[in-house]
Amino acid sequence: MNIPASARPADALDSNWSLVAAGALMTCVAIGVLFSLAVFLEPMSAASGWSRAGISSAMTLAFLSMGVAGFGWGALSDRYGPRVVVLAGTVLLGLSTVLASRASTLLEFQLFYGVMMGIAAGSFFAPVIATTASWFDRHRSLAVSLVSAGMGVAPMTISPLAAWLVTNHDWRTAQLIIGIGAWIVLLPAVWLIRAAPGAAHAAAAAGGAAPAPDMKVGQALRSRAFLVLGITFFACCAAHSGPIFHTVSYAIGCGLPTFAAVTIYSMEGAAGLGGRLLFGVLADRLGAKRVLVAGLLIQAFAAASYLLVNQLGGFYAVAIVFGLAYGGVMPLYAVLARDYFGPRILGTLLGAASMLSSLGMALGPVLGGWLFDRHGSYAWMYIGSMAVGLGAVAIALTFPRTDAAGKAPRLQPAG
Length: 415
Prior knowledge:
Pfam families: MFS_1. Residues 16-403 form the Major facilitator superfamily (MFS) profile domain. The protein is mainly α. Helices cover 78% and strands 0% of the residues. The longest helix is centred in the N-terminal third of the chain and has 30 residues, at 106-135.
């Protein structure tokens, strides 16, 4: 017998932890495959004669493609459901890796590994996060954070695998194996991704916030809540992407050996994984907005704190705080979007927000490099990161007010 969605208890929606596991696996593999390019950079350049700048530009293309494609994938997920979207993304992810391993020119590699893989990777974040947020009410922040944690695990799984493969095979064979392996691992997981039945009705029955039934995507994108969400997401990523990218170089400039400097990046990543879980639990208890504002404030001052250290122990201490903060706040944007807009158009809105965040991620490294070239120091980059981070705090404080339980108000269509 079919039970009406409005009659289903919230616990029924909170039981789909298999989707969380599948989502974490997908984000881990997709981001891990993309970022494994760093492992292939030296052997590819040596074997093919392609410049390192040319090979690295594939990553820039991937970020831009992922941001733009994420908006489209999110809209398709709202219309056709998340399963068909992640299935298409999984097929493209493996195919782009396989084709990149066969590329005969640098341009072909950039198109396959950059553009095509970026499009593929964009299919996982918005649809899977939106679906997870729709399935959960009581433990929504934790569930979304666990899915997002897959991205934090990626450097600790796929990159070591890529390093092992490239030491035992040539880079083409290694990438071919990774592409086929992505299909083998992800295709079965696709069937665990499914839309929450009657999610909009269940959310209303559970007392969660939802937009007016006739609110359109265009109205939501013009709403104050989305503008604040998107601009905060952009500023947050612009604030932390520069320090993430340049801190290893800064540490080497402070006299640290290269290997020791690289471990600072690993420490940030490990702390970010813990931050996703900690902030997820706190957001469920205290409200996503409060935890986001606190995390952004910590992130801003932690970025500037790198200027106060020059020994490995000090770098580790700052990296733990900085990684905890930037890793912890990232999933909360999806939670806030779900609170303000409900599940019906969530994929589209998260796709749009992710596009803005990708632009922020692309901006930080470029500006950091320009400031270093101009001033011969990273000091202005870290100061600028703190300033942008504090700007993100100020913007986040303008979110529409929440109630005593931290829930967002019911939005009405614009004009």
